[in-house]
Specification:
Blueprint: E1 4-9, H1 20-29, E2 32-41, H2 44-56, E3 60-66, H3 78-86, E4 91-100, H4 108-125, E5 129-134, H5 137-146, E6 154-156, H6 163-171, E7 175-178, H7 188-196, E8 202-204, H8 226-237, H9 241-256
Parallel strand pairs: 1-2, 2-3, 3-4, 4-5, 5-6, 6-7, 7-8
Helix pairs in contact: 2-3, 8-9
Length: 271
């Protein structure tokens, strides 16, 4: 069984609380060797929960941030704690952060200000950033091009743009992460991008509990379902499933420096 990593999920959410051990067991049985829990919600509690979960489970790592929906809620005194959390041993990324013009739940100028500040945090703590971009690719690319992105670089999660957007992100050295959207009937443009992008720049994710892939669409998503996205990726690229799994796993290890992260005492699956 090829090793698999879910590069973006939200296992700290309340709707996983009743059966999280079973969810994790299904993921491990499906071949997952690691999951990155993105602690990026409306307050600091989400980031703290993700960091605690990563400290407890040997195959879970964390990222910490505040979602762009909630950029306007950030208080000045949140930043020192975000900095501290981002430096935790099992925290491997900053975010998700970025721009969301579909919902516009925070003013666009505030989203941009917070996005830039998280990019600065990524540089300071030397952890890659995780971008959430929806209906805002031109502005996101303009911000990214104007910033010094730093050696850790970053990932555009749940990629939803077109080929021109993909070229812009790839030219900046970023990775593109594909979610269950890759399996949706109306996602031809996303499949074109997945076929076009260099294999060494592609990650896969669930964004669980959201965006369950076919044939699970409409259900609560969970990390084991990333197998369906990998199958779709292998199909659009015309490569074996094992090659898609190995490549995306290696890319995720590289981007998030997972091989350099020690597992908690008593366990660990990354070698």
């Amino acid at each position: 069984m090829a090793p698999i990593i879910d590069s973006h999920c939200h296992l700290d959410f309340d709707n996983f609380a009743p059966d999280l051990p079973a969810v994790l067991e299904r993921a491990r049985q499906a071949g997952l060797v690691a999951m990155i829990c993105i602690g990026s919600g409306s307050d600091l509690a989400t980031a703290e929960r993700a960091a605690r979960l990563a400290a407890r489970e040997p195959d879970i790592f964390a990222a910490v941030g505040i979602h762009p929906h909630d950029a306007a809620k950030i208080e000045d005194d949140w930043w020192p704690l975000l900095d501290k959390l981002a430096r935790s041993p099992r925290v491997v990324g900053v975010g998700e952060t970025g721009l969301d013009y579909f919902y516009d739940q925070s003013p666009r100028d505030k989203q941009a200000e917070v996005f830039r500040r998280f990019l600065a945090l990524s540089r300071a703590v030397r952890r890659p950033f995780i971008c959430h971009v929806r209906d805002a690719h031109a502005d996101a690319l303009a911000i990214l091009r104007s910033e010094s992105l730093g050696a850790p670089g970053g990932v555009v999660h749940c990629f939803s743009g077109n080929l021109d957007h993909a070229r812009g992100y790839l030219d900046l050295g970023l990775d593109l992460s594909f979610s269950g959207i890759l399996t949706f009937k109306n996602a031809d443009e996303i499949r074109r991008v997945a076929a076009y992008a260099p294999l060494q720049s592609i990650l896969v994710e669930t964004d669980a509990p959201y965006l369950a892939p076919m044939p699970h669409r409409g259900k609560r998503n969970e990390p084991s379902f990333v197998v369906n996205t990998l199958q779709a990726l292998a199909s659009v690229r015309g490569i074996p499933f094992s090659r898609a799994a190995e490549a995306t796993t290696e890319n995720t290890r590289r981007r998030f420096a997972l091989a350099d992260i020690a597992a908690p005492a008593g366990g660990g699956v990354l070698t």
